[in-house]
Amino acid sequence: MSTEKFEFKTEVNQLLELVIHSLYSHREIFLRELISNASDALDKLRFASLQNKDLLGADSVLKIKLFRDEKAGTLTITDNGIGMTREELVNNLGTIARSGTKEFVEQLKKAKDGPELIGQFGVGFYSAFMVADKVTVHSCTASGAAACWISAGQGSFELSASAKAARGTEIILQLKKDAKEYLDEYTLRQLIKKYSDYVDYPIFMDIEREEIPKDQTGQPIEKAKPEKKISEEQLNSRKALWTKNKAEITPEEYNDFYKHIGHSYDTPLEIIHYTAEGASEFKALLYIPEHAPFDLFTKESALGLNLYIKRVFIMHDCKKLIPEYLRFLKGVVDSSDLPLNVSREILQEDAQLEKIKKNITKKVLSVLKNLKEKDPEKYLKFYQEFGAALKEGLHYDYENKDALADLLLFDTSAAAAGQYRSLADYVQHMPKDQKDIYYLISETRAQALASPHLGALKAKNYEVLFLHDVIDEFVLPQLYEYKGKKLQAIDKAGLELGDKQASADKIKAAAEKFGGILTPLKSALSAQVQDVRFSTRLTDSACCLTADENALSAQMQKMFKAMGQAVPEQKKILELNPDHPLVQLLPQLAQKSPEKLPIYAKMLYGQAVIAEGGKLDDPLEFSRQLNELLLKAVEV
Ligand code: ADP
């Protein structure tokens, strides 16, 4: 195979630049990243060999080994894991497979906390360029396909043939002048202890020692000259942290393990370490991260926990262990009930896994409940990062609906900006005459506060929950009620506040007084609305739009439009406030200059659209008419 040159994809170059610069002060983590890749490659091989024993061949002791060459100035990290073919080298080390990377890299460049955020991304392999001028990778798969990848991390890499015949991967770092400390035995020992002690495979290094020669009985020979001896030593303890007693684990150990399994740099927000007994027996060590990963809401978001069976690693990201709405959890589950010879197919069905999932879900929800009660500030931090994911549970997890409802936090009309209330707070503060729980979906708090729908509720001193997450529209109606109180959107038609009779009387009176304008208004707006009515829900505004109870909200329609999807036409209802002076003047206008009524109708409709954060179909025409009216007002 001849040597072939490839250019890195733009995002790789950007990422490289970012990693090298923003992570410079943490550059020692390159070792952890490369060892963790090696350990993943060994995991993959071990898993594949559960079904195909031949994969292991004679080389069945899975291990990682470091080699130092002081003369050449190289540090080499080897594993006898799954290996990579030529194509895999190109794909894995020349591109970033995940989409959305570009935007993320852009975001990182701007962010002050770039180094922390970058950890969520798992920059992994590229961190090698923080300490190396040149990186050479020889890799060989179990079937003997080998290739060599070389790069100086500056825009391109080369692929050529490799003579490597043993299964696995060998990464040779030509260390930078100022990175020679990574050839030092003590430094490497310390780094492995710090970052990779829990790695499930032995990490070896050749250690040179001077020893006094021994005689046949094993006694040191007197006065003999010390001899240089090289022996292979294991640098990591491989002790599975989750099997240790909680009291024996230091916070640093917990945090280091989190960094190891989560490939992250932040510290966990909360640690959940427990042993389940009874219907299913397992140990779990779970972490709630401090920050949400950038791809929490994309399909590619990594979901799942690492699954072990009796301390034997089975797989990464086992999806069956947690519901999707808890996908932010990281950690391990070690089961003592599952059969060791599991294959992916069995994992798909196993009822035992379902039991574990149930148990973990209940546990995590109860930990969150506790956190909310005992440390509201920390809980708020959690909620701001992961609340939107948690809400998905209202839709998918009927069994835990009540527990989830209690974990929700809301911006509300009664809370100060930046303060949040729970449903329990809300219900506790409800005035005696209030029957239902009211909510309004809007993009921002400012938009909610300006909503014409709010007036009538304010007048009655009813609090309104403001919802700003896209998902709210789907999940809130599903919650349906809380503690027997129905949840009602305040911008849907048919909202009844308090005294039905008084409201009906007022509308009747309005119809008698100015009812004549409804028909001409309706015909002027026949393309836009399905009806024009008087209503008692408004206080300060002249009019507002309401939707049928089953209609999509303005927010939702906007979202569908943004996604390029056709939105079925849903005409709204224009509701007029009979107490508003403008509405009261309309009959006069209809009498004196009926030709102007359609223009006023359009203006009223237009402002109602704007008030709910919607988009006008013809903004130019609207502003033209508005200008005309303004001019007339001046002329008068
Ligand atoms: P990540 O580990 O987060 O996926 P990396 O950039 O560290 O990102 O690695 C990219 C990919 O290269 C890995 O997902 C893996 O498929 C492959 N890879 C890296 N190192 C090894 C190795 N030692 N053995 C086999 N494959 C490897």
Walk me through the structure.
With 636 residues, this protein is of the alpha+beta class. The protein has 4 domains: 4-209, Heat Shock Protein 90 (2-Layer Sandwich), CATH 3.30.565; 248-379, 2-Layer Sandwich (Ribosomal Protein S5, domain 2), CATH 3.30.230.80; 410-489, Rossmann fold, CATH 3.40.50; 500-635, Four Helix Bundle (Hemerythrin (Met), subunit A) (Up-down Bundle), CATH 1.20.120.790. Helices cover 38% and strands 20% of the residues. The strands form 4 sheets. It has a 9-stranded mixed β-sheet with strand order 1-6-5-4-7-3-2-8-9, with helices on one face. A 5-stranded mixed β-sheet has the order 10-11-14-12-13, with helices on both faces. Strand 5 (146-151) and strand 6 (156-160) form a beta hairpin. Helix 1 (10-22) runs parallel beside helix 4.
What distance lies between the first and last C-alpha atoms, to the nearest angstrom? Answer: 88 Å
User: CATH homologous superfamily of the largest domain, by name?
Assistant: Histidine kinase-like ATPase, C-terminal domain
Strand content: 15-25%
Distinct ligands, ions and cofactors found in the model? adenosine-5'-diphosphate
Strand order of the largest sheet: 1-6-5-4-7-3-2-8-9
Estimate the helix proportion, in percent. 25-40%
Number of helices: 21
Radius of gyration of CA atoms, rounded to a whole number: 33 Å
What is this structure, in a nutshell?
By secondary structure, the chain is α+β, with helices and mostly antiparallel strands. Helices cover 38% and strands 20% of the residues. α17 (518-524) packs across α20 (597-611).
